[in-house]
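User: Teach me something about this protein's shape.
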Amino acid sequence: MVLIISTITTVNSKQEKVFEAVFKKPTPSNIPWSDIEKLFEALGCELSEGSGSRLRVKLNSVRAVFHRPHPSPYTDRGAVESVKRFLQNAGAKR
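Assistant: First, the predicted structure itself:
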C-alpha cells in the first residue's frame, strides 16, 4: 500500500494497518485511539493538547479537533469517520 501526502513520511506496517482500518467499510469501532495518534505522528501531523480530552491536529494546513475516548481506549465509528474525513481533506490517500 502507498500513502500519498504532500510531505515524505515514514509509516511502519502497523500504521499502514491502522490507516487501512480507518478507511475500511463498514467503519470499525475497535481501533485503539493510541494507534490513531501514532498514525497522526507518522504522517507528520502537528499535535497539540486542548482542554480536557481534546487533541488538536494539523496536516497540510487542514485542522481538526478530536476528543480522546474515555473510559474505553477504543474509538467509536463516528470518530473514525471524522478521522477519515480529516485525512482525506489533508490529502492522505490509499
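Now, about its shape. Helices lie at 13-22, 33-42, 77-89. The beta strands are 31-32, 46-49, 54-59, 62-67, 74-75. If you'd like, I can walk through any region in more detail.
User: That's plenty for now, thanks!
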